[in-house]
Amino acid sequence: MSGHNKWSTIKRKKGALDAKRSKEFSRIIKEISVAVKEGGADPEGNPRLRLAINNAKGVNMPKENILRAITKAEKDPENLQELTFEGYGPGGIAIFIECLTDNNNRTISAVRSTLTKKGGNLGTNGSLAFLFSRKGIFTIAKDKINLDEVELDLIDAGAQNIDDNGDFYVVTTEMEDFGRMNKKLEELKIEVENASLQRIPNDFKSVDKDTAMKFLKLVEELEDNDDVQQVYHNLELTDEVMAAMDNE
Asked: Does pTM surpass 0.70?
């Protein structure tokens, strides 16, 4: 199994195990707010907003919640800033944290505190750039696509891999091809459950089960922070660790 495919599988499984609906809604509402501030409230002329709306539908956010978020962002936009943090967790596992916040000091303090408390430490920005590659990741339910009919179109639009993840296909592109693939899927009228730029590890770090579980507790606490949008890492999730996660 290729690294990016394994990562997608892990993220889906981990999400199914412990993601909270309210956290997902909060994350997407922030994306909607930033998108509206950048490009206006009309999704037809704002690709980032269109993408955020598609992702909202992918987590079954009610239509009225989406419209309310757009209206609020248009009338009273939050002053959100994007922050990233890089560091290491227990066992020297690399961790990359993406945030959207209206209070930088609060977010920096909270992230540093969580890392320190859970046996990790912050590094300097850019220090882990070589460990992760930014890729476009598109998750499509199999009942929304006839792959035989559109596979060549997806390859022409920049698909590097099309992986079978059970009920879903996961299409991976280079970061530069993200917009092109998103446009092609819209043209083909293929409904995407989720589309985003993700940081995919180039190599994975293997540690013993106890260290891995300690690290995953750190990830879980970070993800519970309302300012945190995404947490990426390069932990190798062995069968033993996956079984331990299932038993949590």
From this structure: yes
